[in-house]
Amino acid sequence: MLSRIQLEKYAQVLLWGLKKARAGVFEKKDIILIKYHQEALPLAEILYQRILEMGMNPVQRMLQTPTMEKRFFQSANDQQLTFQTPGESELYSNLNGSIFLNAPESITHLKDIEPEKIGRSLVSQKYLRDIMNRRESMGVFSWTLCIYPTQALAETAGIGMDQYFRQVIKACFLDEPDPVSTWEDIFYNAGQIKKWLNSLDLKYLHVESEHIDLKITLGDHRKWVGISGRNIPSFEIFTSPDWRGTHGVYFADQPSYRNGNYVKGVRLEFNHGVLADVSAEEGEDFLKKQLALDDGAGKIGEFSLTDQRFSQIDQFMANTLFDENFGGPHGNCHLAMGSSYENTFSQNDRTRLTPEYKAESGFNDSALHWDLVNTQPKKVTATLFSGKGVTIYENGKFNY
Hints:
Blueprint: H1 4-21, E1 31-36, H2 41-53, E2 57-62, H3 66-75, H4 78-81, H5 88-92, E3 97-102, H6 115-124, H7 126-137, E4 142-147, H8 151-157, H9 161-171, H10 179-199, E5 202-209, E6 213-217, E7 225-226, E8 236-239, E9 247-252, E10 256-258, E11 261-263, E12 266-271, E13 274-279, H11 284-290, E14 300-306, H12 320-323, E15 332-338, H13 355-361, E16 369-374, E17 378-384, E18 389-394, E19 397-398
Parallel strand pairs: 1-2, 1-3, 3-4
Antiparallel strand pairs: 5-6, 5-17, 6-9, 7-8, 8-14, 9-12, 10-11, 12-13, 14-15, 15-16, 17-18, 18-19
Helix pairs in contact: 1-2
């Protein structure tokens, strides 16, 4: 369990992340949405109080229970699957911040639901994410999220609750006297690495491991971002490449849960950005259906690297937030299938990133964003436009 002191520290870190992630400054009367599962109520209550004390307006939303969510997809007709709640657009168009406390009581309750039904519902809600993206680009909105340990998460990860709590505590530095200070140090050190990466005139990357041989083209007007406060914890440094320049083979050795489905040993082969072959040791049928969710689902939206000197996560956690930030002995890389991140656009005026420009420059767009993680020893070599080769990552570390 998290003590009251640890819960207070968790809330402090989340609010630090929310502030860091916003280009603008929070003001009194700003509207902050707190979304949470029932088991995260103790943390939600503390956040609610702290936001009130800051003079802002908290809006709280408890998410569906597993029974509600399963019955929705079992019983909903086509109209109900795509139903848009009145007032949601107005709320999201006025939000200044969003905090999501992920505390699932079940991981697998949707495993027997047709992926197409879930997909239709997700696509129908994409307009809300588009609103948030626009507000974020204007500097008037930011978001962050975390996980709150549950028995379901621990059982799915194959570890005890005590061990799961310990992973969360050490990953978020909740056992330190001043975790926000520690996060500030990581934020600074990661900033130096991002400056170095963005100073390189990168043409493409070559990722090599025992099962990976992949070329990734950066594309025009891209930058490396990460450790921004948007996820707690987050240790990844990433970019959104030009999906059209992806060639070769990628392999995810780390398992993944999505919509209650277990997928393991994912192998993806690309030719000019298009999937030429898809396979998985387990969950292959579900994988293929997800990658056909919409036109962008089978294209890459993100490439990420995590330095094991930052991350203390050394256990599979059955949760993407932690698993994509795995440190361990070799760090990790991950490839996200689906939507790209607009904050990787390097120009200051992000209003230029119109749907037309995104299509012309290889920024991918999709209702899907699925991180597939490789934790094997690897080497990442960058080829510059000058023709020079530079090893940017090896032995789990950036070569900065």
